[in-house]
Amino acid sequence: MNSSQHPQHRTALSVNVNKVALVRNTRHLGIPSVTRAAELCLQAGAQGITVHPRPDERHIRSQDVFELAALMKAWPDREYNVEGNPSQNLMEFIRQVRPHQATFVPDSEDQFTSDHGWSFPQDAERLAPLVAECRSLGVRVSLFMDPVPGQMAAARAVGADRVELYTEPFAAAWGTPQQAAELRRYADAAQAALDAGLGVNAGHDLNRDNLAAFVREVPGVLEVSIGHALIADALELGYAATVRAYLACITAGFGVSENS
Ligand SMILES: CC(=O)[C@@H](O)[C@H](O)COP(=O)(O)O
Ligand SMILES: NCC(=O)COP(=O)(O)O
C-alpha cells in the first residue's frame, strides 16, 4: 500500500519554527519574528505550526509558545503541535495552551537535537498517565518513535493517538545504496502503526529532496513536521515560496506512483 492508492488522504505540512527563534535569540531586537514567520507560513498554505520548547530555551522560549497559541486562534482550520519531554517542561505548556497535538519526545535536558524515540516496555508506566492527562484536556498525543514495527502496538497500548516516526536515518540514507531499504523500513513501521490503530506522523531532517518519496512510499502519513531544512530554504527563497515548494513535494508524492 502507498499514498497514491489513497487519493483522498493527503499529508499535512506543519512548519517547525524553532530555527527562526534561534536566530532571533542572538540579539535583543525581536527579529526575525517567530509569530510573523508562522503567519507567513500559514498564509502560504502550511496546515500547522510546530515548536519544540527545550528547557534551556536555546530557541523557542515560553513566551513564543503562548504568542503562537494566540496566533493559531486566528487560524481555526490549522493545527498547533507542541513537542517536548513530558517529564521536563512540556506538560505545563500543554495544560496552559491546550494545543491540537502534543508530541512526546524522550530528549535529555541538554540534548543537541532529537535522536531517538521512546522504548517499550521501559517507558510505558511513566508515559501512560501523561498521555491520559493530555487526552482528558482534549489534546491529541503523538509519540516520537524509531521505525520499529514491533514497538507500535505498545505505543497504542499506553493510549497514544499517533506516532511520529523519527526520520533522520531515512534522510541520512537518501541518495545512498541504503535508500530503498530504509524506505521499506519506514513503510513497514507505518503499516504496523496503522494496524495497531495509530495515526502516523513523521519528522526530522525531511527536506525538498526526500519528502515526495517518503509520503509516496510510506502509508498513511497524516503530518510531516519540518523545520531545519525548510527554514534554511526560506533564507534563500522566502517563507511563502518555500512553503509552496514543500507542499508541491507532498502533492508530487501523492501523484502517480513510480510502481503503478
Ligand atoms: C522531535 C524532533 O525531531 C524535532 O523536535 C527536532 O529535533 C527539532 O529540534 P531542534 O530544532 O532543537 O533540533
Ligand atoms: N518533529 C520534527 C520537527 O518538528 C522538525 O525537525 P527538523 O526538520 O528540524 O529536523
TrEMBL record:
Keyword presence, Transferase: yes
Listed NCBIfam families: pdxJ, PRK05265.1-4
Keywords, alphabetical: Cytoplasm, Pyridoxine biosynthesis, Transferase
UniProt key word Cytoplasm: yes
Family: Belongs to the PNP synthase family.
A Pfam family annotated for this UniProt entry: PdxJ
One GO-annotated biological process of the protein: pyridoxine biosynthetic process
Gene Ontology MF term list: pyridoxine 5'-phosphate synthase activity
Species: Acidovorax delafieldii 2AN
Principal location class: cytoplasm
InterPro entries: Aldolase_TIM, PyrdxlP_synth_PdxJ, Pyridoxine-5'_phos_synth
Protein name: Pyridoxine 5'-phosphate synthase
Protein residues bound to 3-amino-2-oxopropyl phosphate: 16, 27, 205, 227-228
GO cellular component terms, A-Z: cytosol
Catalytic activity reported: 3-amino-2-oxopropyl phosphate + 1-deoxy-D-xylulose 5-phosphate = pyridoxine 5'-phosphate + phosphate + 2 H2O + H(+)
Residues annotated as binding 1-deoxy-D-xylulose 5-phosphate: 54, 59, 113
Primary role: Catalyzes the complicated ring closure reaction between the two acyclic compounds 1-deoxy-D-xylulose-5-phosphate (DXP) and 3-amino-2-oxopropyl phosphate (1-amino-acetone-3-phosphate or AAP) to form pyridoxine 5'-phosphate (PNP) and inorganic phosphate.
Assembly information from the UniProt record: Homooctamer; tetramer of dimers.
Positions annotated as active site in the UniProt record: 52 (proton acceptor), 83 (proton acceptor), 204 (proton donor)
Biological or metabolic pathway of the protein: Cofactor biosynthesis; pyridoxine 5'-phosphate biosynthesis; pyridoxine 5'-phosphate from D-erythrose 4-phosphate: step 5/5
Protein origin, superkingdom: Bacteria
Site, as annotated: Transition state stabilizer: 164
EC number from the UniProt entry: 2.6.99.2
Compartment(s) of residence: Cytoplasm
